[in-house]
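Section 4.2 – Deliverable D4.2 (structural model, holo form)

The reporting period included a commitment to supply a predicted holo structure for the target in complex with C2E. Inputs used:
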Amino acid sequence: MTWLDKDPPASISNPDLVIAQYKSLSRQAPLIYLIGLVGGWSLAISHWSVAPAWAVIYYPILVSIVSAIRIANWLKARKADVSVIEAKKQLDRSHVMAILVPLLFGFWGFSLFPYGDLALQGQVIFTVCVGTVSIMFCVLHLRTAMLIGVLCINVIGLAYFLVYQNFDHFAVFLSSVVFCGALTFVFRNYYEDFLQLVTVGQQLKAKQTQLELKAEETERLARENEKLANHDALTGLPNRRLFFSVLEAKCTQAQTKGHLLALCIFDLGGFKALNDLFGHVAGDSLLLQVGTRLKAKVGNSFIARLGGDEFCVLIENAANVREAEMRARDIRDIFNAPFLVPGGGVSLSGFVGVAILDDDAPSYVNLYENAAFALRVSKRKSDQHFVVFGEEQREEMRKTVLLERTLLNANLFEELSLEYQPIIDIRSNRVLCFEALARWKSPEIGEVPPSDFIPVAEHSGYINQLTSYLLERALREARDWPEDIGLSFNLSATNLSSAETVSQLLTLVERSGFAPERLEFEITETAVMWDYEQSLKAVRSLKKTGVRISLDDFGTGYSSLKQMHELPLDKIKVDRSFVRGITNDPTCYGIVKSLLTLSHDMNIECVIEGVETGAELETVKEIGGDLVQGFLLGRPLPPTGVPDCLAKAQSKQREAWLSAS
Ligand code: C2E
Ligand code: CA
Ligand code: CA
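Output (structure tokens):
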């Protein structure tokens, strides 16, 4: 126990001073006894032949024993920590000792005084005086004890002079009294210095404590900052930053030890739509649950949230690729059970991309890129929610990289063009509008379909530039069409992602002189749901200028009736995957029929896409469809083919009119 452990009583106003005084006393006390013993024994030896045995043998032995015990006690006490209360007790006791010690040694010295001749008497006075001064030095820091001690020894001396009435050395005695008095006065200053020293020490200690606290606080803040910088605030999981440094370290470790390392990246399919539908609180709760389920599933494996709705897990020490894949599939099972969020239970289709660290992907960057690519593939292909990066993906990635590079270096004016596919009202055989479809013919890699190069342009951030070029061109090419023929143009999610990109489109429309009422922008359902709030804003500002909005690939995304109602839509285009089964799959038939009814009820036009056969067209007619697009009625045409197509449609209309009349 240290002296700080116990609270000092209120009477101890300065605990530090008490401790400092005690420590000084415990250091000096053995010395006091030693000085007394040396002085006493030197006198005893000088008076050996003249003084009685009790004065030179027995009494000195008694004093020596007492002194030895005291010295031993002090030496022991010096090593131990002492409480303030204990120290104070010892200091109070020192006042009593300040009487007893002078009595013990003073009596020894002065008891020999009457037996010696003048010289020996002088020696007694000299020894007592020197001893007193030496002891005064020892108790410099105990002012009261020093005063009591000095007073005591002088009173004992005076008492001897008076008892034995021998004043031969009285003058010497008097001068030693004066000398002691003067020293007491001088020592007073030292005592003040001592007090100041203790105060300064106290202040330094307080400052040091403060500094220590500050250092602790700084360290705590640094730790917190580190945690914040490396962890996701919502789930508490490591974030992207920490993920990359851990991934790098784990890759090096796995390569050195020859262990297998797999990286799985998860993406919560439909999360954004659910976030918009149920609100951000529900979205946060969902992410938390995914984090919790992942932790419960993988135990000690490293998990991170890479941002948004992307999580990842590192699979270490699998015996082989097959086991790593099985473990990844097992983790994916966390999406099997629905999640409970405020507003209801929701099911998510988790997309997973897996990559293995091997000689073909030797660095952590390769590993990450491969897993991210596998994830992209899994998201693109609706039938494959789990993709392990393999030879097929490597080839696809190589093609994508080549595509990206070629597209970025392409001469847009020469290589890009547009084809136009008619959308026809099958009741009147009238062409309502043409949908502009992008075409790219690269001198290096040949013809590339838009379903390949549009996603690459979106991914590389090149899409806005591409859209601007294509829109300008489409507006120019459609300028000479008859006024009742509209132009339908496809937009990407990125084109709607900010006010700037939207105003870029509007400026182009304005500059073209093309009547906005004849222009229709097609946005896919998945693009709208990618960031519903922003899409809503963008669609509203487009609508203000008079252009029409069509929801493309309807039925493949996650929009709700509420959102459909909220969006100022003019048209929906039922995805061609439903038309594919319309003649033989009752579900597809039912879906197309319901969507037609829904659009009529909502007063929105409905185009059935991808009609390829007469049977499909008949079924569409049967269930009340009127607007149709498909290879059966017209394939995409170069701009030069448009007048011909219109002329054919007109002659068909005439034929129909003639046969009806
Ligand atoms: P989309 O907007 O759904 O366009 C219709 C696609 O279906 C076109 O393919 C068209 O050729 C094809 N199609 C039309 N009728 C039939 C049919 O009866 N059977 C079959 N099998 N297919 C039919 P395309 O031209 O290859 O375009 C594919 C997709 O690329 C488009 O799908 C659209 O999402 C995108 N795309 C094309 N041009 C552009 C563009 O300029 N900008 C953007 N952002 N996307 C574009
Ligand atoms: Ca379209
Ligand atoms: Ca479509």
